[in-house]
Amino acid sequence: MEDTQTRFFTLEDGPIRLRDGGELPSVTLAYETWGELNAGGTNAILLFHALSGSHHACGHTPAIPGTGELWQPEMHEGWWNDLIGPGKALDTSKHFIVCANYLGGCYGSTGPASANPATGKPYGSAFPHVAAADQAELQAKLLDHLGIGTLHAVIGPSVGGLVATTFATRFPDRVKNVISIAAGYKTTVLNRLILFEQILAIENDPHFNGGDYYDGPGPLYGLALARMISHKTFVHLDAFERRARRDVVQSDDILAWYRVRDQFQSYMLHQGKKFTKRFDANTYLRIIDMWSRFDGASEGDAETPQELFTRCAKAGQKWLVFSIDSDFCFYPEEQTDLVKHLEQAGVDVMHLTVHSEKGHDSFLLEPDYYTPHISWVLGQ
User: Fold this and answer.
1) pLDDT tens digit string along 195-204?
2) Annotated catalytic, 158?
């Protein structure tokens, strides 16, 4: 796999004011691109990553400046290598693909671990709340910088689908096609509760220190627990038995009294501990806070779903919405709700359900289920 390079776009005409009232003196977005932008700037696709993903969707990136030890070997290969490239669903011989790390991220974009110019120390607790609308607005400025006016498509799986919806509705005239994979229109009560459990896990770690932990060990236990809470929604429960190792590994460094009893507990503990090596707890809090509060109409400054999506209909957008029938994270009912709002507003929308045994992670693991339909939409 060819080596790719992370680039950086910086906005320095601060203060950059965010939706919830916070502001930053400057903002840097880490991003990568694949393919070539045509002379008219009309063949670009903007890709949004999932909760704990990164801008590195394709190729091999062995290092990213400023990420320290978080850029673990498992991150070096692009998370959508099977869908991006010549002749693939996102065909780089035809399209110019852009993917940026979110504001608040920990893979090169300005985030809580970045140095606050006012203090010279990491922002930590001083880093503001970030909304999906902020992500859309900043990435629109990145597109301006790259000379891209109208996008051929915006694409987002999982949490990326929420940001893709926000971009498409805030900038309807800049988007021709929208592909939302295993996402929704508004965060459900169930998901808000699951996300709240993860927030509490991190907040109550004795090393969290209100978010100002960069001089110490950090809230590794809380972050591991948060990941364990979320991980069981990403993987279909039937797949746990196939994934879990048969041997049981006792983690004496975490559990004092209770002993891990089976391979499922051992597997989940392994997933949680592994995650702490590649992600920052403050970033995790900012992104799940963004997800927890997501409401499509609110992010698009609309009163109703009808008002929101009528913009898309007037702009002539075409939408492709994927559901995964075994998804325990974004249940298929959430995509049905999104499609209902789109149809009521007169948007041209196609809704497909992927039949999978892999749950929410299907979009990462089963490219053949998505490639034909994405290729058809992008090739129209």
Assistant:
1) 999 999 999 9
2) yes
